[in-house]
Amino acid sequence: MQNLRQLYQCCFITRKSFLSSSSALLSLIPKYLCLPTLHPVSWIFLPKGQYKSNSISSSARNMSTSTIALAIEKQMVLENGVQQVELLNGVEDSYGGIILNMEEPMESEAFVYSLRASISQWKQQGKRGVWIKLPIQLVNLVEPSVKEGFRYHHAEPDYIMLVNWISNFTNTIPENASHRVGIGAFVINDQREVLVVQENNGTFKGKGVWKFPTGVVNEGEDICMAAIREVKEETGIDTEFVEILAFRQSHKSFFTKSDLFFVCMLRPLSFDIQKQDTEIEAAQWMSINEYAAQPFIQKYDGFSSVANVCLAKLEKDYAGFSRIPTTTASGKTSYVYFNSRDLSKL
Question: Which stretches make up the Nudix hydrolase domain (predicted)?
Answer without folding.
Answer: 178-310
